[in-house]
Amino acid sequence: MEMTALFLSRIQFAFTITFHIIFPSFTIGLAAWLTVLETLHLRTGSPVYRGIFEFWLKIFGVAFGLGVVSGIVMAFQFGTNWSELSKMSGPIQGPLLMYETFTAFMLEASFFGVLIFGRSRVPPWFYLFSTAMVALGTTFSAFWIMVNNSWMQVPTGYVMEKGMFVPNDWTKIILNPVVWSPFPHMLLASYLTGAFCVAATGAWYLLRKVYHAEARIMLRMGIGLAAVLMPIQLVFGHLSGGYVNTYQPAKMAAIEGRWNDEKPASEVLFAWPDVANRRNLFEIKLPPPFGSLIGADSLTAGETGLNSIAPENRPPVLIPFFSFRIMVACGLVMLGLAWLGSYLSFKHRLAYNRPMLWLTFLSFPLPFIAIITGWFTAEVGRQPWVVYGVLRTADAVTPFLTTRQATISLVIFCAVYAFIFLFGTFYIYRLIRNGPARKPFEIPHLVVPNRPMSLADEEQIREPSYVIGGE
Question: Which of 47, 183, 203, 381 shows the greatest Cβ crowding within 10 Å of its Cβ?
């Protein structure tokens, strides 16, 4: 494939968004988990919940910082690589990103400081309130991003003036009916990510025979939450497929590997799409009307095939086709693990079943893989449009961007993000390996937010049991 500025810019954005989404999806779920832990601590007074809270708060802080840094750097590309998109959609996307700043970042930044420095300085009820506000801030962030993306998927509430998308009805933009399935779908995916990471950590500790009390709570609560949320997630996944079937038939045809119109339609479970000859190899499918039932909730509905779509408007087929199936496979595996784990937990056998503990521990990448492949399905399947049906990706790239410039920026982005990822991942691994402190971590009285290095001074005179990550 020819290395053009357009192609390299697409690769760069795909790389950075894939990297960035790892951290928000983790912290959104983790923020909700922290709120639950703090609530349980206040209700029961158990120091175990307090210790687990302090442990995961440190991990949340690192992951939150990595998400902010990678997100800010990622946003630079709108000006450097996609200036035409910024110019044309700025009147809509600019305010939406501003709303995220004023709602999400304000809550997160303000109350996260309370979580770090305010345990001994504010009443317990206000500390719990601050934890909930951080969780609410992460939810607002997800909402505004999904509103922005949903408008790009199904643009509405605008008029064209001087070559720009100018909003004429913010109600249609913000309350776009399309957003009410992808937003819960993404939010639940984040909660499931947090649940499986927590459960995997608990399983790892039990396999190592350390932190038994904390590990049992992590394992039981993580698996239990996943068992409840996974069926709901499948429902919202189906609803998201419904809007794709209605508004983006080309994307649906690529996802399904459907080349010809069918009424009623069959359902391709697995195949290898032969794009050159417009057919499927090694095809395994369900007969009609399963395709119509899954795509349109109807036994007789017709489904569009790729051959009915103009070649210049067809999306790539291989990536949406396989990424969708990987996402679904991860979801089904997580559902099976969550339900089996919940059954063993109910029978009080989960903590002693080493095969199940290993499966739970090894499951932690599954929600991340499902989220990444889900985004690949949505975004690659939208091609060749960046704003569906009205602005092509080729017309959104910076017109004077050269291949050399795009190559240099791609290399720099890859190097910077690789360094951040390796450093952040290693540091989080060290925190998890050290485990929960046996004594809840307290910020010393003399430590103040505007003198962060005072924490290091205080650490030198504290006993080892108080040190962050110590046993």
Answer: 203
DSSP of 51-88: HHHHHHHHHHHHHHHHHHHHHHHHHTHHHHT-HHHHHH
**63-67 long-range Cβ contacts below 8 angstroms, 24+ apart:** 63/23, 63/26, 63/27, 63/30, 63/424, 63/428, 64/23, 64/27, 64/108, 64/112, 65/424, 66/23, 66/420, 66/421, 66/424, 67/20, 67/23, 67/24, 67/26, 67/27
Contact indicator for 371, 21 with CB cutoff of 8 Å? yes
The two three-digit tokens of residue 14, written as one number: 């795909």
- Name the domain count of the chain: 1
Residue 452, preceding bond cis, omega within 30 degrees?
A: no
In 3D, which of 405, 401, 424, 425 has the Cα closest to residue 413? Answer: 405
Q: How far apart are CA 30 and CA 144, in angstroms?
A: 19
Contact 284, 271 (CB under 8 A): yes
Q: What is the pTM of this model?
A: 0.89
H helix and E strand count, the chain: 17, 6
The mean per-residue pLDDT over the stretch 72-81 comes to 83
Q: What are the residues facing 385 on neighbouring strands? A: 392
The DSSP line for 341-358 is HHHHHHTT-GGG-HHHHH
Distance CA(379)–CA(145), nearest Å, equals 14
Q: What is the pLDDT of residue 449?
A: 52
pLDDT for 102-115, tens place per residue? 888 788 888 988 88
What is the extent of the structural domain holding 238? 5-246+313-466
**Tokens 């997580």, residue?**
334
Nearest to 447 by CA among 34, 53, 123, 121: 121
Confidence of residue 451 (pLDDT cuts 50, 70, 90): low
d(C-alpha 270, C-alpha 89), whole Å:
38
β 267-274/164-167 pair status: unpaired
b or e along 162-197 (b: 16 or more beta carbons within 10 Å of the residue's beta carbon)? eeebebeeeeebbebebbbbbbbbbbbbbbbbbbbb
Cα 395–Cα 401–Cα 404 angle in degrees, nearest 5: 135
Degrees, nearest 5: CA angle 239-243-249: 130
Asked if residue 307 belongs to a domain, the reply is no
Name the pairing type of β-strands 279-286 and 158-161: unpaired
Whether 76 maps to a domain, the answer reads: yes
**274: in domain:** no
Cα separation values, 463 from 240, 377, 428, 452, 469, Å: 53, 51, 23, 20, 13
Backbone angles phi, psi at 446, to 5 degrees: -80, -10
- pLDDT for position 178: 87
Give dist(CA 364, CA 240) in Å, integer: 24
Greatest C-alpha distance within the chain: 76
288 within domain boundaries: no
